[in-house]
Amino acid sequence: MVTSTSLVYLIALPLFGSAILLLAGRRSDKWGHLLATALSASSFGVGLYQLSQMLARPTEERAITQKLFSWINVGTFNVDAGLLLDQLSICFVLLITGVGTLIHIYSISYMSHDENRRRFFAFLNLFIAAMLLLVLGDSYLNLYVGWEGVGLASYLLIGFWNQKPAYATASKKAFVMNRVGDMGLSFAIMIAFATLGTVSFSGVQEASHTASKAALTGIGIMLLVAATGKSAQFPLQAWLGDAMAGPTPVSALIHAATMVTAGVYLIVRSNFIFDAAPTAQLLVVIVGAITLMFGALVGTAKDDIKKALAASTMSQIGYMVLGAGLGPAGYAFAIMHLLTHGFFKAGMFLGAGSVMHGMNDQVDMRRYGALRKFMPITFATFGLGYLAIIGVPPFAGFYSKDAIIETAFNAGGVKGILLGSTALLGAAITAFYMTRVMVLTFTSKERWEDDQHPHESPLLMWLPMAILAIGSVTTGFLFTRGHALVNWLAPVVGEHAEDEKVLLQPVVVSALALLAVVIGVAIAIRKYQLSDVEKVAPQNVSFFTRIARKDLMQDSFNEAVFMKPGQTLTALLVQGDEKVVDGAVRGVGTMALGAGSALRKTQTGFARSYAALILIGAIVLIAGIWVVTQ
Amino acid sequence: MNALTTMMALPLIGSLLIAIIPSEQVLRIKQATFITTLLVAISGVLTWIKFDSANTALQFVESAKWIPSFGINYAVGVDGLAIVLILMSVLLAPIVVLAGWNESEGGRWSPKVFYILILVLETMMIGVFAATDLFLFYVFFEAMLIPVYFLIGGFGSGERAAAAVKFLLYSLFGGLLMLASIIGLYVISGANGGHTFDITRLSELHTYMSSTTQNLLFLGFFIAFAIKAPVWPLHTWLPDAAAAATPGTSVLLLGVLDKVGTFGMIRFCLALFPDASKTFTPLILVLSVISIIYGAFLAIGARDIKRLIAYTSISHFGFITMGIFAMTSQGMSGATLYMFNHGFSTAALFLVAGWMISRRGSSTIADFGGLQRVTPIMAWSFFIAGMSSLALPGLSSFVSEFLVLVGTYTRYPVAAVIATFGIVLAALYILIPVQKALHGPTTPGNENLSDLNLREKIAIAPVVAIIVALGFYPSPLLNVINPASAHVLEVQGFTDPVPSESAGK
Amino acid sequence: MNPFNYLYVAGLLFTIGAVGVVVRRNAIVVFMCVELMLNAANLTLVTFARINGNLDGQVVAFFTMVVAACEVVVGLAIIVTIYRSRRSASIDDASLLKR
Amino acid sequence: MTFEAPVLHYSILAPILIVLGGALVGVLIEAFAPRASRRSSQLFVTVASLVIALAALLRVRNQVSVSAAMGSVSFDGAGFLLQASILIIAILSVFLIADQENFTALAAAVPGSEEERHSLQADLRVTEVYPLTLFAVAGMLLFPISSDLITLFVALEMLSLPLYLMAGLSRRRRLMSQESALKYFLLGAFSSAFFLFGIAYLYGYSASITFSGIQASIVGGSGNDVFLLLGIAFISVGLLFKVGAVPFHAWTPDVYQGAPTAVTGFMAAATKVAAFGAILRIYYVTFANAQWQWKPALVLIAIITMVFGSVVAISQRDVKRMLAYSSIAHAGFLLSGVIALSKSGLEASIFYLFAYGIATLGAFAVVTLIRDSAGEVTDLNRWSGLGKRSPLTASVFALFLLAFAGIPLTSGFIGKFSIFSAAYESGNTSLLIAGVLSSAIAAFFYIRVIVLMFFKDSVEDGTSVVIPSALTTTTIAITSAVTLILGIYPAPLINFIATFATFVR
């Protein structure tokens, strides 16, 4: 395999940036954000350069590696600090650095009033570095480092305004739930090492040919657990909504475009395992399907624009996971949707941020309305993203999502029909709630107070939105020309033979999908555009709406099943340690003391009793010896 | 003069010098102590550099007759495990002195006493790891208690006297059980080729013991070490002691003294009683797993920041013992590395916590809040320390913790799996205090706390540096540890389990 | 006659003395009981001298008498001092030291 | 029948004779010397005769003889070591006794009477205590080397009678002092009656009063085992009474508390050496072959004694009583040395006796320093904060306590180690375990006192530390130095003992 010496710069540059900014402290307030942006951009540059290099090489030599040093080396457990750049990771590298850079730029203006902007940029750079490590690591353990690194960055950024207790709690929640997923990843690594004797991608792939189904299934399931944690998939989805506590650029970059898609990357990267472990693969599609419905349903009930978008992110990632679960047929499409989603969802989040910026941080969509007039650019870019996500041709979402739906239908048998129809239904709901967002925010009549003065955001903010909008228009088209992306990824995720017998022809699927979209849009327009909307969410709503607003009771569930018992257990143990464990120890002491004062009483002070003691002693002694000797 | 002996002599000399400085000149005394510990640290680093990691035999060996008629020698020497722990101890000492620059005031006695005790303790810390004569080891093992006892009881806070007594009685009890075992060994050695305490010769004795004898003697040692380490359920002295002691003392207590327990398990329990070790491994693994989870839960429930750190240590020591008795190269090396890393991450936690407490005048977590805004540097130092305590990848403790888990999994999957839940609990027991103390609105009383001063920054910087550096590049230590731990396992007759499905087979 | 009977007598005397020490309160009487025990021992010695047919036992008996005499001197001295300071020869009164 | 003149080896008997001579001179001084000059002259005579006796003893250290006095004394290495220890301890105790503050002005005077007040005003001094001490020492010297039953009995009385009197000479709390004298005397006489009865039966068993004769007939197995049984049992009662083994211990606390502290120290240290010397000889030489008879019983007594002493000591409030109970516990430890019945057991016992005697003497010497207007303060609660008031005194006392507790780097540890290993080597595992456990219990109260002295705040009730007289200072200095040195580098003494410690048969 071709080795390179320049991969490390991809990571080193932003890492360096964050280090500088954190160590220099306030001294770097003046120029910190600029440095960070520049470094992120230059990392993007390196990415482009690597792409050009890669394109220059023949297909089989496109993947390149770089070994930095031997990281952990104990017995047969040898892990190098090594990087791997192949067709799959380059996509991510460009997405991360590209979108990342745009969001840096956006943030310069968005955070300009925050006294800690420098620290914000330091964390952004830290995130970029960690995310790059995640996608560039050449072994599961290296990936793990990036994996938790992004978790840390996300924790820091969600809690960036942690003086608000709620935000602090949100960040903690995110970290802890991610840790649950990370636990899965460590299990996967342990099993891999114990059974296959290696944890590097190449090693595991090579061993996976001979390994037993059981082992691979175990690894696969554990990887899935990890993915659900990081990508907010069912059942570890609960943290994503609260994660919106972070500044909007963070939501755009981390909780829409990149980090939350890491799970998808992990599954696609481990395709060789899932291909060999059908059970695990089945679980993947099930998780994907459930989550895409879950997110979609939650999305319909949210009035907080960011939470609505978050729910939609969850749902969209559900699509990706579903795709990834469909095996070689789906990997490429999952990645494609991931990339397109990266563009349009990031764009929409930035749009949301721009709206909040104009509405001095109001997030309740019921207090928006008719913003079209006041912030046209935001409206335009957001709108393009909207069209992309609901899957209107020829926008990006159409190609990627359609492909997934189609593959789902063609997965074969009942499974195929179920998955396909779920995906289709999901598309309809997506159309509904996204239209709802669109309408409530931009087109319906205005519902904000008079003291609000909506205005368009400055250039630094709308420029990135515009670029992302362009992306969300064009990418789908580009990726699908002559199966560009599919062929590009084939060396990594494996060729997929075009199966001749298909349940539904692409045309049919597209037609159905469009139909679903139209229905969804129609309902939404009728419900929100053509009828008035209360400024405060009505309470006399259907039971369904109520629990949808409560994220389908996910928090109540976690609280009842994990938190409360956990707290009780903790309290019990604390008591027990004090009373029982330590009590036993103290008991011994008290016992000794008691025995002491009891025996003291034998010392009556009367000489005669002492004499008696001696006499008895003598008799006992004689008797004793007698007994022993006879 | 032998490198180890020199290292042990230096602090004693220093303490004598300090003894002649009039106790009014506190600054002079502090400087003298700091310089002494610094010198020791330097010589320690030099020794570590000179150490030939390829060679599994004991190095820097020195032996002199002490009590010939009992076959007792003053014998010192180090292998890869010992040198790493000595390195840790001598590196921590100057940091502790510098960090706790003012903690000697307000004690029962003059600062002079404090620093003399600290230096005497340092000598014994080095000696206990360097001793290759069981008797010598025991002497250090027990004599160590006295300075610590006075450090806690004389300079601590709160229930210091009670805590000190609890600590001493617990340890003495363990020590006496160990003494019984030592006498047993001594007698057995006398019956088989002459009285001796030389550990290499003692390690050949197990062939002469009945399994019952071996088990009993093993227990004598193990209980003593389990109290030191501390392993559930023999841990209850630790939170009290740690809560009462000054931060610096706590660092030495949890960072170094408790390591004597885990070190002793490798050096004596495994080496002297291989069969018994095998017999008891299941039990010990159970205890370790319990310690991991139990300690974590108690840390979550802790209200006092020092107790919290103590409980986290109980959890961490669970990992160490588990790694040791997993009997795999990853577990063994991981455990040893863990001892080193735990020394520093706990040091960081305790020192920063100590600064927070001394500024706020309270060690209750609830009394803090919003420190990140008032005292950013202190807050971030605490955060980094916490991250290393929850074994964040990229920080040193991750490497060791993961090695322990992987190493355990290959032989005892169940234990490893349960233990892994500890990493989720770790996230909780670190982030909860982080949120309560550093985040949220600034609670009244904290508005004008002062941030770290230069001295404190200088003290904490190397700790953080080591934590980060070893996270990315642990090889310098692993290269020293690996041959030694491999040697231990080889003596034990253990080989790593082969991957059950490796492409090779 | 069977010399062993003397041993029984001596044993009896010894027991009487021992019990006396335990049951009597007056220091003097207690001391007398001790003397009784000593003489019981003497009787035993002499008897054994007879049984064993050598004089060692009788020699010991002489020594014992001397020693006993010394004990009387010391003992009475102590008892008298106590009596003078306490105006009572009951050893039960002297029980300040206890526990 | 012909009469042969007795042959006496005066060189061997010299030490005893010198001491006796000194005593007689002392008596003459009491009779004729003017009051003013008595104290100095008595002190001189006493110390001189003791020192000369020691010198004379050293001259004959290599001699071994069973016929030093027609077979009633057998001198050998062990005898030499025991006598030497006794003399050294005696000299150091005399330094304490010389501090007249301990003694009544006029023993005959009724407490609180006119007579007493006069004598106090006249500033009279009892100086009889010096000859009494010498008589006792002479008895102690004879006790461990006597090799027939007569000599044994005479020696026993010779060391006891003066002690009975000395116990009653306290200057303060005279009622208690006299009471202790009475109790000591009555119980002592009681026990010596048992002793004598035992002698009678041993004689009855073996038709001989020499140890060798008795041993011969035990080996021969002729003779009535019932007599042997009664003999051993009754003699043991007498001897165990002297060393204060349970259940014959009851006098110890009362007498230790009531007697003048200097005398208590002398009694506790020297009597133990002498009595254990005799026990060692008689069990090692005479009864060795009958161990099947007495060993189980003695093991039981030893265990009970250790545990009882340690447990009861916990709840003591008076320092002298606490030391008394601790001496009971130590009697138990020493008995395990007797039971060992081996060369190492003998060496260990002798080392232990010396180390313990020195430490005990030192401890009581310190007790004499803590006083208030009404004399010595022995109530432990009033010792609190001693470490603050006079760190040196407190530290020295702490050192002795640590020695009793058997902490390494003190003589006590070496003693414990050697005596327990001897016991275990001879197959008495139960003693080892019991010893270890009771040591753990014992640590409890030794540490309590240390806490009291160092970690509790002092109460202002006039309790103060007096400036010790030069002689007392010497005693304390020497005893503490020895305690420390024997802990750090005991090899010379151990070797010395090893070369001498043998019993001639």
Structure at a glance:
The complex is a heterotetramer of chains A (630), B (505), C (99) and D (505). Chain C contains 3 helices and no strands.
What does this structure look like?
The complex is a heterotetramer of chains A (630), B (505), C (99) and D (505). With 505 residues, chain B is mainly alpha-helical. Chain B contains 20 helices and two strands. Chain B folds into two domains: 1-175 and 232-261, no CATH class; 274-495, no CATH class. In chain B, α3 runs antiparallel to α4 and α14 (329-360) packs across α20 (475-492). Chain B starts with a helix and ends in a 13-residue tail after the last helix. Chain C has one domain (4-86): Helix Hairpins (Orthogonal Bundle). Chain C has helices spanning 4-23, 27-52, 56-86. The model of chain C has no long low-confidence stretch (mean pLDDT 89). In chain D, 73% of the residues lie in helices and 1% in strands. Chain D has 20 helices and three strands. Chain D has helices at residues 10-32, 35-59, 77-97, 114-121, 129-142, 149-167, 174-206, 211-220, 225-243, 251-258, 261-286, 291-314, 319-340, 343-367, 386-389, 391-405, 411-425, 429-455, 470-488, 491-500; strands at residues 370-372, 375-376, 464-465. Chain C: Belongs to the complex I subunit 4L family.
Unreliable sequence segments of chain C: none
How far apart, in Å, are the first and last alpha carbons of chain D? 29 Å
- How many H/I helices of chain C? 3
Total beta-strand segments of chain C? 0
| Order of SSEs of chain C | HHH
Largest sheet geometry of chain C: none
Mean pLDDT, all residues of chain D: 89
Radius of gyration of chain C: 17 Å
Mean pLDDT of chain C: 89
Work out the radius of gyration of chain D.
22 Å
Shape of chain C: elongated
SSE-based structural type of chain D: mainly alpha
The largest β sheet of chain D comes out as: 3 strands, antiparallel
Describe the oligomeric state of these chains in a short phrase: heterotetramer
- Residues in helix, % of chain D: over 70%
InterPro entries (chain A): NADHpl_OxRdtase_5_subgr, ND/Mrp_TM, NU5C-like, Proton_antipo_N
Membrane topology (chain A): Multi-pass membrane protein
GO cellular component, one term (chain A): membrane
Pfam family, one (chain A): Proton_antipo_M
Secondary structure blueprint with pairings:
The complex is a heterotetramer of chains A (630), B (505), C (99) and D (505).
Chain A: E1 2-3, H1 7-24, H2 32-56, E2 64-74, E3 77-85, H3 87-110, H4 117-136, H5 140-158, H6 165-196, H7 201-208, H8 213-230, H9 239-243, H10 248-257, H11 262-269, H12 271-276, H13 278-301, H14 305-325, H15 328-358, H16 376-390, H17 396-409, H18 413-443, H19 459-480, H20 484-493, H21 506-529, H22 543-549, H23 554-600, H24 607-629
Parallel strand pairs in A: 1-2
Antiparallel strand pairs in A: 2-3
Helix pairs in contact in A: 1-2, 1-4, 2-3, 2-4, 3-4, 3-10, 3-15, 3-19, 4-5, 5-6, 5-10, 6-8, 8-11, 8-13, 10-15, 11-14, 13-14, 13-18, 13-22, 14-15, 14-17, 14-18, 15-16, 15-17, 15-19, 15-20, 16-18, 16-19, 17-18, 17-19, 17-21, 18-21
Chain C: H1 4-23, H2 27-52, H3 56-86
Helix pairs in contact in C: 1-2, 2-3
Chain D: H1 10-32, H2 35-59, H3 77-97, H4 114-121, H5 129-142, H6 149-167, H7 174-206, H8 211-220, H9 225-243, H10 251-258, H11 261-286, H12 291-314, H13 319-340, H14 343-367, E1 370-372, E2 375-376, H15 386-389, H16 391-405, H17 411-425, H18 429-455, E3 464-465, H19 470-488, H20 491-500
